[in-house]
Amino acid sequence: MAVSNKKLLNLLLVDDDEEFRTSLADQLSLYEEFEISQAGTASETLEMAKSRYFDGIILDVGLPDIDGRELCRLIRQAGVGAPIIMLTALDSDADTVLGLDSGANDYVAKPFRLNVLMARLRAQLRQHEQSVDAVFTIGPYNFQPGNKLLESRDSQSKIPLTEKESQILRYLYRAGSSAVSRDTLLAEIWDYKPEVTTHTLETHIYRLRQKLESNPDQPALIVTEGDAYRLVP
């Protein structure tokens, strides 16, 4: 059975109202799965979105320097594929269409209930994780589960993965600093099929190490802990 202590999801919260932004960040921080970063202007947001990876962005329409919808377009043009949920004080169909056309994934009108925002956010995060746009950092690589691909950060090398290899990496990544037992991986990846043995999993781990590790005989990224495996940040 896998232990908790999941990988934290990085969220960027953008709103020029510092009191509202801080209050919402505090509420989101109560959900232990999230790590919250904040920005109050479009220029600050764009710089952060280009330089860091975020799993999701919550973006207010009314910003002091650029309209939030224009900022959303600029974020998409910069190649950022993370889910973006727009916040607005306006609640009209035309305003929603403008927001979605700018590249937002969803639109939430203020005032809103936190549980509604959380449900919308989690739905977008789940959908994004399965998409070709999802990118996770593993050691010196960017991992694209949708494309079943590992790419070095300098984009000099690309390593194709099999479907099972990609599933194993994604599961270990989501476990964060927790070790995942062989039984759990067999159950989650192979669905307890009777013909699948521990040797099958060990073979896949061996092949993954050959692809990821600089020295597969002394793995530094996928380490063995007793009867379990752990992905090292």
From TrEMBL:
Which Pfam families does this one have? Response_reg, Trans_reg_C
Q: Which residues are modified to 4-aspartylphosphate? A: 60
Which segments constitute the OmpR/PhoB-type domain?
A: 133-233
CDD domains xrefs: REC_OmpR (cd17574), trans_reg_C (cd00383)
- Is Metal-binding tagged as a keyword? no
Q: Where is the Response regulatory domain?
A: 10-125
* Annotation: DNA-binding region: 133-233
Q: Respond yes or no to whether keyword Phosphoprotein is given for this record.
A: yes
* Record-given protein name: Response regulator transcription factor
